[in-house]
Protein backbone atom coordinates (compact mmCIF):
# COMPACT_ATOMS: atom_id res chain seq x y z
CA UNK A 1 0.00 0.00 0.00
CA UNK A 2 1.13 3.53 -0.70
CA UNK A 3 1.89 5.80 2.21
CA UNK A 4 -1.18 8.02 2.47
CA UNK A 5 -1.87 11.20 4.38
CA UNK A 6 -5.51 12.07 5.03
CA UNK A 7 -6.13 15.64 6.14
CA UNK A 8 -9.13 17.81 6.89
CA UNK A 9 -9.91 21.20 8.40
CA UNK A 10 -11.97 22.08 11.45
CA UNK A 11 -13.44 25.39 12.52
CA UNK A 12 -12.59 25.40 16.23
CA UNK A 13 -10.36 24.02 18.96
CA UNK A 14 -13.26 21.99 20.35
CA UNK A 15 -14.04 20.49 16.94
CA UNK A 16 -10.34 19.54 16.49
CA UNK A 17 -10.24 17.93 19.92
CA UNK A 18 -13.40 15.97 19.14
CA UNK A 19 -11.86 14.70 15.89
CA UNK A 20 -8.72 13.52 17.74
CA UNK A 21 -10.77 11.81 20.47
CA UNK A 22 -12.94 10.03 17.91
CA UNK A 23 -9.92 8.95 15.87
CA UNK A 24 -8.38 7.53 19.05
CA UNK A 25 -11.62 5.69 19.85
CA UNK A 26 -11.62 4.29 16.30
CA UNK A 27 -8.21 2.74 17.00
CA UNK A 28 -5.98 5.28 15.27
CA UNK A 29 -2.73 5.83 17.16
CA UNK A 30 -1.99 9.40 18.22
CA UNK A 31 1.50 8.79 16.76
CA UNK A 32 -0.21 8.92 13.34
CA UNK A 33 -2.04 12.20 13.99
CA UNK A 34 -0.65 15.68 13.34
CA UNK A 35 -2.29 19.04 13.98
CA UNK A 36 -1.44 22.29 12.18
CA UNK A 37 -2.94 25.38 13.79
CA UNK A 38 -2.56 29.12 14.28
CA UNK A 39 -0.97 29.85 17.67
CA UNK A 40 -4.20 31.33 19.05
CA UNK A 41 -6.13 28.13 18.27
CA UNK A 42 -4.03 25.41 19.92
CA UNK A 43 -6.34 22.45 20.63
CA UNK A 44 -5.93 20.74 24.01
CA UNK A 45 -5.16 17.49 22.20
CA UNK A 46 -2.09 19.13 20.64
CA UNK A 47 -0.73 19.60 24.16
CA UNK A 48 -2.01 16.45 25.89
CA UNK A 49 -1.84 13.62 23.36
CA UNK A 50 0.16 14.64 20.30
CA UNK A 51 3.94 14.49 20.76
CA UNK A 52 6.34 16.96 19.20
CA UNK A 53 5.84 20.46 17.92
CA UNK A 54 7.46 22.89 15.53
CA UNK A 55 6.77 26.42 14.39
CA UNK A 56 6.44 27.48 10.77
CA UNK A 57 5.73 30.75 9.06
CA UNK A 58 3.15 31.17 6.36
CA UNK A 59 3.74 33.43 3.35
CA UNK A 60 2.02 36.22 5.26
CA UNK A 61 4.54 35.90 8.09
CA UNK A 62 1.92 34.47 10.46
CA UNK A 63 3.38 31.76 12.73
CA UNK A 64 1.63 28.42 12.95
CA UNK A 65 2.36 25.36 15.06
CA UNK A 66 2.65 21.82 13.84
CA UNK A 67 2.22 19.03 16.38
CA UNK A 68 2.79 15.33 15.81
CA UNK A 69 4.70 13.36 13.21
CA UNK A 70 4.65 16.19 10.67
CA UNK A 71 6.43 18.43 13.18
CA UNK A 72 9.40 16.09 13.20
CA UNK A 73 9.52 15.97 9.41
CA UNK A 74 9.26 19.75 9.12
CA UNK A 75 11.84 20.37 11.86
CA UNK A 76 14.39 18.43 9.83
CA UNK A 77 13.72 20.68 6.84
CA UNK A 78 14.01 23.93 8.83
CA UNK A 79 13.06 27.39 7.57
CA UNK A 80 16.61 28.55 6.86
CA UNK A 81 16.20 27.89 3.15
CA UNK A 82 13.37 30.46 2.90
CA UNK A 83 10.99 28.05 1.15
CA UNK A 84 7.30 28.93 1.09
CA UNK A 85 4.80 26.93 3.13
CA UNK A 86 3.52 25.19 -0.03
CA UNK A 87 7.09 24.30 -1.05
CA UNK A 88 7.84 22.88 2.39
CA UNK A 89 4.68 20.80 2.25
CA UNK A 90 5.65 19.57 -1.23
CA UNK A 91 8.84 18.13 0.31
CA UNK A 92 6.51 15.97 2.41
CA UNK A 93 4.72 14.80 -0.74
CA UNK A 94 1.76 17.17 -1.15
CA UNK A 95 1.43 18.93 -4.48
CA UNK A 96 1.55 22.73 -4.72
CA UNK A 97 -2.24 23.05 -4.90
CA UNK A 98 -2.70 20.99 -1.73
CA UNK A 99 -0.03 22.97 0.14
CA UNK A 100 -1.63 26.25 -0.95
CA UNK A 101 -5.06 25.02 0.14
CA UNK A 102 -3.68 24.10 3.59
CA UNK A 103 -2.04 27.51 3.90
CA UNK A 104 -5.29 29.22 2.92
CA UNK A 105 -7.15 27.23 5.60
CA UNK A 106 -4.60 28.24 8.25
CA UNK A 107 -4.84 31.89 7.17
CA UNK A 108 -8.63 31.60 7.62
CA UNK A 109 -7.96 30.53 11.25
CA UNK A 110 -8.89 26.92 10.67
CA UNK A 111 -7.18 23.92 12.22
CA UNK A 112 -5.82 21.12 10.04
CA UNK A 113 -5.86 17.52 11.28
CA UNK A 114 -3.61 15.14 9.33
CA UNK A 115 -3.54 11.36 9.75
CA UNK A 116 -0.83 9.14 8.34
CA UNK A 117 -2.43 5.89 7.22
CA UNK A 118 -0.23 2.99 8.28
CA UNK A 119 -2.32 0.20 6.79
CA UNK A 120 -5.29 -0.16 4.49
CA UNK A 121 -7.61 -1.26 7.29
CA UNK A 122 -7.37 2.14 8.99
CA UNK A 123 -8.73 4.02 5.98
CA UNK A 124 -12.43 3.15 6.51
CA UNK A 125 -12.23 4.09 10.20
CA UNK A 126 -10.56 7.40 9.39
CA UNK A 127 -13.07 8.35 6.68
CA UNK A 128 -16.03 7.24 8.76
CA UNK A 129 -14.80 9.31 11.71
CA UNK A 130 -14.18 12.43 9.61
CA UNK A 131 -17.49 12.06 7.78
CA UNK A 132 -19.41 11.65 11.03
CA UNK A 133 -17.89 14.83 12.47
CA UNK A 134 -18.65 17.02 9.46
CA UNK A 135 -15.11 18.29 8.88
CA UNK A 136 -14.25 20.41 5.83
CA UNK A 137 -11.80 19.99 2.95
CA UNK A 138 -11.07 16.29 3.41
CA UNK A 139 -8.29 15.22 1.05
CA UNK A 140 -5.84 12.39 0.65
CA UNK A 141 -2.29 12.60 -0.68
CA UNK A 142 0.00 9.76 -1.64
CA UNK A 143 3.17 10.86 0.08
CA UNK A 144 5.20 7.78 -0.85
CA UNK A 145 6.82 9.72 -3.69
CA UNK A 146 8.15 12.84 -2.00
CA UNK A 147 9.54 14.43 -5.15
CA UNK A 148 7.73 12.51 -7.86
CA UNK A 149 4.21 12.72 -9.14
CA UNK A 150 1.67 12.81 -6.36
CA UNK A 151 -1.61 11.01 -6.79
CA UNK A 152 -4.43 12.76 -5.02
CA UNK A 153 -7.90 11.65 -4.10
CA UNK A 154 -10.84 13.70 -2.94
CA UNK A 155 -13.29 12.45 -0.35
CA UNK A 156 -16.67 11.63 -1.84
CA UNK A 157 -19.28 11.03 0.89
CA UNK A 158 -21.35 8.87 -1.44
CA UNK A 159 -18.46 6.37 -1.61
CA UNK A 160 -17.60 6.44 2.11
CA UNK A 161 -17.65 3.14 3.97
CA UNK A 162 -20.67 2.35 6.11
CA UNK A 163 -20.34 2.36 9.89
CA UNK A 164 -19.07 -0.87 11.37
CA UNK A 165 -21.81 -2.70 13.25
CA UNK A 166 -24.19 0.24 13.03
CA UNK A 167 -27.44 0.17 11.16
CA UNK A 168 -28.41 3.29 9.27
CA UNK A 169 -31.97 4.39 9.69
CA UNK A 170 -33.84 7.27 8.16
CA UNK A 171 -36.96 8.94 9.40
CA UNK A 172 -39.96 8.52 7.16
**Which segments are poorly predicted (pLDDT under 50) over 5 or more consecutive residues?**
145-172
* Number of DSSP E strands: 7
Structural class: alpha+beta
Whole-number tally of structural domains: 1
Into which percentage range does the β-strand content fall? 15-25%
Mean pLDDT: 77
Radius of gyration: 16 Å
**Strand sequence of the main sheet, in spatial order?**
3-4-2-5-1-6-7
Large-scale geometry: globular
- Major sheet description: 7 strands, antiparallel
Q: State the order of secondary-structure elements, H for helix, E for strand.
A: EHEHEEHHHEHEE
Q: What is the number of helices?
A: 6
N/C terminus separation:
41 Å
Helicity level: 25-40%
Structural summary, described in words:
The longest helix has 13 residues, at 13-25. The chain has six helices and seven strands; from the N terminus they run E-H-E-H-E-E-H-H-H-E-H-E-E. The protein has one domain. Residues 145-172 have low confidence and may be disordered. By secondary structure, the protein is of the alpha+beta class. It has a seven-stranded antiparallel beta sheet with strand order 3-4-2-5-1-6-7, with helices on both faces. Strand 3 and strand 4 form a beta hairpin.
Question: What would a concise description of this structure say?
Answer:
With 172 residues, the chain is of the alpha+beta class. It is built from 6 helices and 7 strands.
